[in-house]
Amino acid sequence: MMTINSPFPKGFLWGGATAANQLEGAYNVGGKGLTVADVLPGGKIRDSLREDPNFDFVMDETKYTYPNHDGIDFYNRYKEDIALFAEMGFKAYRMSIAWTRIFPKGDELEPNEEGLKFYDRVFDELSKHGIEPVVTLSHYEMPLHLITEYGGWRSREVLTFFERYLHAVYNRYKGKVKYWLTFNEINSGIVRPLFGLGFIAKNDDERYQQKFQAFHHQFLASALAVKLGHEIIPDSKVGCMIIYIPTYSYDSNPENVMHTLEVSRLFNNFCGDVHVFGEYPSYMNKYFKDHNIELQMKDGDLDLLKEGTVDFISFSYYMSRTEKKVKTSEEQVSGNVVLGSIKNPFLEASDWKWEIDPLGLRISLNELYDRYHLPLFIVENGLGAYDKVEEDGSIQDDYRIDYLRAHIKAMRDALEDGVDLIGYTSWGCIDLVSAGTGELAKRYGFIYVDKQDDGSGTLERKKKKSFDWYKKVITTNGSDLS
Fold it and tell me: Is Hydrolase tagged as a keyword (predicted)?
């Protein structure tokens, strides 16, 4: 038995995390418009299309399947699912609002009342069970119309539409939601801009100039979300959300160490620095110069960035990354979400070849807190795996328990290091559609959902072995990890 005197603070926000486009389903119900996620098919083709310059954003249901169109039917079964979250003892539920349920095309003048009512019902149900909603404003579900007609976040007009969306949801839910996150994994746009920035880079101009111009508009939108959040909901806490991947040098060769520093600053630090410090970091000057990037700004832009710095840092953590300046194709990690990483000989990997590094989470927490001195919130962490239903109906996911136990222990160690950590919401607390591959087979949940990639299944919810384990972790506030 692993029982300890828990360092987790009173009121620690234990819970789980999902995203609207991965579990709600009902993709064209209730006035909802299409998102970028809706037109990306399931399976391995989904990942390749995210970088295909010829992708036309048109659905072809004769050729592909689209699992997220149905998701796990949370839209109709949210009461049942929230009751299961409550049974586990969730203190918080990190979720997202589908922007196109509120503004179906993104550029309308008035919000869609039916969409607003749906989230009223969800928030009321969470409140009934004493669960704090942690709401992401934009989670890889940009309105398709804003992509095809405006070019995504490259267009400054999108900032106006996003401000309209902010006013709609802040004013509607100001008595129901305290914790808000702006853009999910905003730094993902560094490597793949489609989900976050709303376009596929087709050439060097789009890869550099237009991408970072889009980032500028999104930074302004995030700052505006903080500023308006504080004005409309005085007790609100508005944070950013980044992927954090601690980056190790392959060896002590100074060339590799310097390369590792440059890679880490661009991916791990750039977006966080702008959100927290309200200005562009000086190390980006050389990057902008080397890539002929000249950001177009308007009067007041830099003032807004300063006025809209975040209250806390939220982040996802799944793996670490090992870097080498010159590498062979054989050295690269196949399946790693960060392209070009080197295989780490000291780490094992998941079924999807994501390297498993619990100590990397402790390193991440220390690096982030040392840099920003703001409260931290882990809003995604978990193990995607193939789960098997046994003949007796049970799901013996000890591998998931082992993974989570090691990562929660790393959190405990980081708290003892002096890190200010306010919450932990395990990713995919109920099985859902994978964002990267559009698969249901890649399961993260404590709750099994009988839905398969071919569309078959009853949608029955079933508790995995990890369900009761996580319930015990929450009940003991992290003191019993056995």
Answer: yes
SS3 366: helix
Annotated active-site residue 380? The verdict is yes
Active-site residue identified among 132, 141, 206, 380: 380
- All domains of the chain, ordered by start, with CATH? 13-475 (3.20.20.80)
d(CA 281, CA 270): 7
Helix (H) or strand (E) segment spanning residue 255: helix 254-264
Q: Which residues contact 425 (CB under 8 A, 6 or more apart)?
A: 13, 14, 15, 16, 17, 92, 93, 94, 134, 377, 378, 379, 380
Alpha helices in 25-156 (DSSP H): 44-49, 74-88, 99-102, 113-128, 144-148
Pick from 236, 239, 245: nearest CA to 174: 236
pTM: 0.97
CB-neighbour burial class of residue 314 (10 A; exposed 0-12, middle 13-18, buried 19+): buried
Q: Where are the alpha helices (DSSP H) in 89-234?
A: 99-102, 113-128, 144-148, 157-173, 193-197, 204-205, 211-232
The yes-or-no verdict on residue 5 having pLDDT over 90 is no
Cβ–Cβ under 8 Å, residues 403 and 444: no
Max Cα distance, the chain (Å): 66
Digit-coded pLDDT (tens) for 206-235: 999 999 999 999 999 999 999 999 999 999
Rg of the chain, C-alpha, whole Å: 21
User: Cα separation of 181 and 310, whole Å?
Assistant: 9
Q: Determine the angle formed by the axes of helices 157-173 and 113-128, rounding to 10 degrees.
A: 50
- What are the tokens at 426? 């395990």
